[in-house]
Amino acid sequence: MDGQTIVATIAASVSLVAMGITAWQAAEARKARKATEKQVATAEAALKAALDQAESAKESASAAWRAADSAETSAHATQRQADIADAALQDARAVRDEADGPEFELKPGTSSKPGKKAVAVTMTKGPQVRVTLTAVRPDSSVPHEEVSVAAENRVHTFVRNTTREFVIDCAQPGNPRLVYLRIELTCEEVRGRKRKWVRYESVSFPGPTRFRELGHR
């Protein structure tokens, strides 16, 4: 084998080695590219899943907001209906109270003075009325006789749940501690049919004042 043949053989061997290396590198590059493509596909799938979850969460939040808004609207509507029903009930009660006439609650007043007694009168229901108070007491000198008793501020106008005080002169010769007093409330309707009512109350002194209704007319 001459020198040229040896050189050609070596060159061919080197070329084959180089071709083998190149082929290996190409195969490795293909493997790396496939791995990269697989990673990219996995990342894209994960991104799509995340986007889908985000969209689903957005839709759920939107649905929850719509449900909350609907519930709030329903609650407002229910409250409005309750307010309307309550107003209708109050109107019905007012009509009933006006038809039944006034009712009063009497208690000892706070303006009592020596020889005088204060009576606090509260109208618990009824139309607007003008109330005139007349008080009488038994005459100690004549059994079963009654005499009128002076009252300060004896006329007051009432509406429901208002309270007024009447001060009554209870002085009686020889009997400074009055034991019985009868109060007459004459009520005249301020508006409407101008109806009138009369209510009688009995009062006991001294000690706690007690009232009882004697009748209407």
> What is the averaged pLDDT score?
72
| Global structural class | alpha+beta
Number of domains: 2
CATH architecture assignment of the largest domain: Sandwich
User: Helical proportion?
Assistant: 40-55%
Termini separation: 156 Å
Secondary structure: number of strands: 10
CATH topology of the largest domain: Immunoglobulin-like
Supply the number of helical segments: 1
Largest sheet: 6 strands, antiparallel
Strand content: 25-35%
**So what's the overall shape?**
rod-shaped
Low-pLDDT stretches: 205-217
Could you explain how this protein is built, in words?
This protein is an alpha+beta fold and 217 residues long. The protein folds into two domains: 1-100; 101-216, Sandwich (Immunoglobulin-like), CATH 2.60.40. Helix content is 45%, strand content 29%. The chain contains one helix and ten strands. The strands form two sheets. Strands 3, 4, 6, 8, 9 and 10 form a six-stranded antiparallel beta sheet that branches. A four-stranded antiparallel beta sheet has the order 1-2-7-5. Residues 205-217 have low confidence and may be disordered. Residues 93-117 are annotated as: Disordered. Keywords: Coiled coil, Membrane, Transmembrane, Transmembrane helix.
At a glance:
The protein is about 45% helix and about 30% strand. The protein is of the alpha+beta class and about 220 residues long.
Question: Tags for this entry?
Answer:
single chain, 217 residues, alpha+beta, Immunoglobulin-like, six-stranded antiparallel β-sheet, 1 helix, rod-shaped
